[in-house]
Design goal:
Two copies of one chain form a homodimer. By secondary structure, chain A is an alpha/beta fold. The first copy, chain A, is 47% helix and 15% strand. Chain A is globular and about 55 Å long.
């Protein structure tokens, strides 16, 4: 296990985030100034897979801290239907580890032609997406070999958080951001014991991952990791949407993971944990709140962290849980069956 | 079965849609004129559960036919975080069967205060949401008693399609729309044989529903119906996103439903069906294309229909499949465990 690329890349996350904070600030400041000058009416983000979950994070971070409405673009409008909507007044961001996502690149290209402000966030400054957008912000994550994205996901979140910090210009955000590398390292240490109890879920065939607000993104990302690494039928839900139907499927033993750090959603998540408890659901909890952790059959206690940065922390135990589900089932963690590192869709 | 409210309400859909087309045009024309006058930069739609899937339909119908970018609003920005993003230049639509969704109402309220053009689409003109928005369009669906929404979903799609028709002002759209009640009735008739083969899936514990473009909405809605009625761990994916990870879980016998009517996505969906076939997946196909239907172990052939209206047709067999999964498992179809007709979240 310790020699898999996946395990190594998970462990590299504090280093990558620290590097971004140390080296990428001038580039981020330049993009932030361009955004201020452009003064977008809204933000559209195009992405696929893991990168789309980074976009979900931006929906809340840009919304709460900048008052900017964020839409997740529908790339097929640009490719399949060849009917790009009018994005001329938007900041249009394309996110992709490889920078090779052709459908995402097409959104950037159409938007740029319409006069939108375009930004690519990728790990490769020479990539097609980086070349298509007006601006590029690099992930500085070195090569990611494992097919399941981990360090590039938290690097994407970090770049987005740095952009929010540069635009919001509130001193406490900067201080909070500077602590993330240390907090991610602490979280890695606190997640070590997942290996001890991962076998409990060896035969789990379905799995719900629940979060909301900032950690709606985390629910989707952990769900995707478990899905692609351990081949489990996993679905992410917002706490609210789950109550509007899917909660019907919960009965004794139904396994659910709750992502519930301290913050504005804690009461809602605790109430949902109570409902799951009443129905006898199996509960895994990722939290830094003792009253929330009390609901878990298995728990990962994470460090205290400002809510807006909690997705960078809370995703870590999920990555590790997904890896151990693959390991305990005997699946290859670096190359899940049927997947390639770069998936090109149109 | 024939006496359940669910079965009756599924059967009422042609009548409800015909009534909307016959009676709601003046109101739709008035709202369309208000939208033209306001000239929104983008559209934000707030909704939960089934209504959120109607919003997903609008993302494509407004995008392809009107060039309007559509975002799905994040209600928690308005309620939990009390940080409403700036929607002043948007058409903001709230969709809810009951009109009582408090979080959706709050989005409308904030948007109206900001100067946005607001529209509620509900079944109750006296509902809180209808009273909060500047404009209201009624679903004219009579009372929906079954907890699982069916006729109000297709009514929501119809109202949105009527709005698109009124704004796009292309004669062929109107003609196509006028045929929907007849096509939905034909689809109901063609779906009758689902009862004969539903038992094949009696022990299915997980299920993927795949669509894209216009029928991304259909995939989500069928997934939700199967989930809430038959308590199966069901997930909807876009054809593109599925290739970016979740396809890893497909092996022999993995059950998937493909929604693939004729239209711009047919080639993509056929290619995905081929991939699923290579991996030995179990395939149910809803389509009006013979080459696509050939991929199905079980199929529902639906009538030919213009692609932009195909979600109104393709969802019908999914509703009926979900009902039969509940029936064959002995679950109450009108009142799934743990659900209420009106779910209020904040």
């Amino acid at each position: 296990m310790s020699t898999s690329h996946l395990a190594q890349e998970i462990a590299q996350q504090p280093t990558v985030i620290a590097r971004l904070l140390a080296e990428n600030s001038p580039q981020v400041a330049r993009v932030a100034q361009a955004i201020r000058d452009f003064n977008p009416t809204f933000v559209a983000i195009a992405a696929r897979g893991t990168s789309d979950n980074a976009a979900r994070y931006a929906q809340y971070a840009f919304g709460v801290l900048l008052g900017l409405p964020v839409m997740l673009a529908a790339p097929s409008l640009h490719t399949i239907y060849q009917a790009p909507p009018n994005l001329a007044r938007a900041l249009v961001i394309g996110i992709s580890q490889s920078g090779q996502a052709e459908d995402v690149r097409r959104v950037l290209q159409d938007a740029r032609q319409q006069g939108a402000l375009t930004l690519a966030i990728t790990n490769y400054p020479d990539s097609p997406m980086a070349q298509t957008a007006i601006h590029h912000l690099a992930l500085l994550a070195d090569e990611e070999v494992s097919i399941a994205a981990t360090k590039t996901y938290t690097a994407q979140l970090t770049v987005l958080a740095m952009l929010v910090n540069a635009l919001a210009d509130r001193p406490h955000l900067r201080d909070e951001l500077s602590q993330v590398p240390r907090l991610v390292q602490e979280t890695l240490d606190l997640s070590a014991n997942i290996a001890d109890w991962a076998e409990r879920y060896r035969y789990m065939e379905k799995f719900a991952v629940l979060g909301r607000g900032y950690n709606y993104s985390t629910a989707f990302e952990i769900s995707l990791k478990v899905n692609e690494l351990a081949y489990i039928a996993t679905t992410a839900y917002s706490e609210a949407d789950f109550r509007h139907g899917p909660i019907a499927m919960v009965q004794t033993g139904f396994p659910a993971l709750l992502i519930a750090p301290q913050g504005a959603l804690l009461d809602n998540m605790r109430d949902l944990a109570e409902k799951l408890s009443e129905r006898g659901a199996e509960r895994i909890v990722i939290s830094n709140d003792p009253t929330m952790l009390a609901y878990g059959h298995k728990v990962v206690r994470v460090p205290e962290v400002a809510e807006w940065l909690s997705p960078l922390i809370c995703v870590i135990p999920g990555q590790i849980f997904a890896m151990h589900q693959a390991l305990t089932r005997g699946y290859p963690v670096d190359k899940p069956r049927g997947l390639s590192k770069v998936t090109i869709t149109e």
